Amino acid sequence: MRKLFFVSFVFLMAAAAVHGEDGAYIGVNIGTAMSSVPAPTQITTLLRSQNIRHVRLYDADPAMLAALSNTGIRVIVSVPNEQLLAIGNSNATAANWVARNVAAHFPAVNITAIAVGSEVLSAQPNAAPLLMPAMRYLQNALVAAALDRYIKISTPHSSSIILDSFPPSQAFFNRSLDSVLVPMLKFLQSTGSPLMLNVYPYYDYMRSNGVIPLDYALFRPLPPNKEAVDTNTLLHYTNVFDAVVDAAYFAMAYVNVTNVPVMVTETGWPHKGDPSSEPDATSDNADTYNSNLIRHVMNSTGTPKHPGVDVPTYIYELYDEDTRPGSTSEKYWGLFDMNGVPAYTLHLTGSGVLLANDTTNQTYCVAREGADPKMLQAALDWACGPGKVDCSMLMQGQPCYDPDTVEAHATYAFNAYYHGMGMGSGTCYFSGVAVVTTTDPSHGSCVYSGKNGTSLMNGTSQAPSTNSTDGGSGAPRAFGDVSSLAHIVSTALLFSVLLLL
């Protein structure tokens, strides 16, 4: 009976992970136009170390999917443009593609969407007539495999298909594409799928010949008199990104489609370019754009037309791609080089705990935002007990007692353990309730170990790989709002049970 309970519980947890809908999130694109492509296991190690939970692949490489298996990372797989001809002409071919590239890996790989082609309408207009048949055939295959409720079908578009994009209220799609776009939008509407849009303020700025201010492209704060105003709606726009997303919403409304969400499948800023022709492709501007973008998206800011409505967004891209053709900047959109070294430091204060690519090694281990309080309490009990963290600074009257919350106290204990263990791999996990960040959680006279790696440990700690709470009932009181021994024991047991799953 106990075994049956555990099997049932694992199944329900897996189902919840598949069914779970994300609110605001940032993902990354993983391109492979590199002279030395990292091994799939290296890629997933980097993703997990940076708390990246959403990725978009430009294909459905089986080795990459195998590496993503059982990581919980949500994955968009893609049908490359060169495969559209075969899939768009054959229901059987589409079914085989889904069987081989989706069904064979799901649910171990948390595939959430299939991106059919990339910017087909603008990059390969001759293939446009095949796009809708391919999407329908793939949808048929998902339905036949009973996967349509978990996986959505869409196709990424260049924002160039939107004409007269400012003011956004006057935007409309290129009418020459109506024969494909209108049925496609109806398809997205009927299947609950998003409009995938690639938004590049860098190119909008570069092509504007000075009309678009750099600050407006980079999300930098603007005084009210510098904001762009849509004279039809009187909505104020403080950045290019929001204006383009709203232009897509208005363009859809123009063809009577009003309930299809926008997902930004590519956006970013290059950190290096030709100094003479691309002077604004700099690491400082890349840091500014991506840091501000992450804050904007993760704070559920929404857009002026839809305030508070999340816009899921994927940064282009994880790695620099040194073999990409074109201008110098084409090779330098990555957050990391092909060796996993950060291309520049993101400054993410106020944006949560994501993409801790800090080249100065000033990293901290903190409680994951929104983590289950019971899990945090159990992890805190373990850290202050078997984990051998010196938690005396959390005692009433000590510098780190306030704020007297489980989250704040867990953050102190997690960070002390993390640095006491030399910031080793796996030492900031605690069954998923802890993450690495570059934002210093120190406050007032409560100073956290950081750059100098100061240890706040009581002697030799236990092995970090298990974070076991075995014997947790013997831990000292975990400083928070819980005082009973019974609660400490029960939460420790809960933590141990979840670690076994």
Describe this structure in words.
The protein is an alpha/beta fold. The chain is built from 15 helices and 15 strands. It has helices at 2-19, 40-49, 62-68, 84-88, 91-103, 120-123, 128-144, 178-191, 201-207, 214-217, 240-254, 283-298, 373-384, 406-420, 485-500, and strands at residues 26-30, 54-57, 74-79, 110-116, 152-154, 156-158, 162-163, 172-173, 195-198, 228-229, 236-237, 262-267, 313-315, 364-367, 434-437. The strands form 4 sheets. The chain has a 9-stranded parallel sheet with strand order 5-4-3-2-1-13-12-9-6. Strands 7-8 form a two-stranded antiparallel ribbon. The radius of gyration is 24 Å and the shape is globular. The two termini are 16 Å apart. The model is unreliable at 1-21, 349-354, 356-361, 451-455 and 459-501 (pLDDT under 50).
Quick structural overview:
The protein is of the alpha/beta class and 501 residues long. The chain has helices at residues 2-19, 40-49, 62-68, 84-88, 91-103, 120-123, 128-144, 178-191, 201-207, 214-217, 240-254, 283-298, 373-384, 406-420, 485-500, and strands at residues 26-30, 54-57, 74-79, 110-116, 152-154, 156-158, 162-163, 172-173, 195-198, 228-229, 236-237, 262-267, 313-315, 364-367, 434-437.
Would you spell out the secondary-structure blueprint of this structure?
Layout: H1 2-19, E1 26-30, H2 40-49, E2 54-57, H3 62-68, E3 74-79, H4 84-88, H5 91-103, E4 110-116, H6 120-123, H7 128-144, E5 152-154, E6 156-158, E7 162-163, E8 172-173, H8 178-191, E9 195-198, H9 201-207, H10 214-217, E10 228-229, E11 236-237, H11 240-254, E12 262-267, H12 283-298, E13 313-315, E14 364-367, H13 373-384, H14 406-420, E15 434-437, H15 485-500
Parallel strand pairs: 1-2, 1-13, 2-3, 3-4, 4-5, 6-9, 9-12, 12-13
Antiparallel strand pairs: 7-8, 10-11, 14-15
Helix pairs in contact: 2-3, 5-7, 7-8, 13-14, 13-15
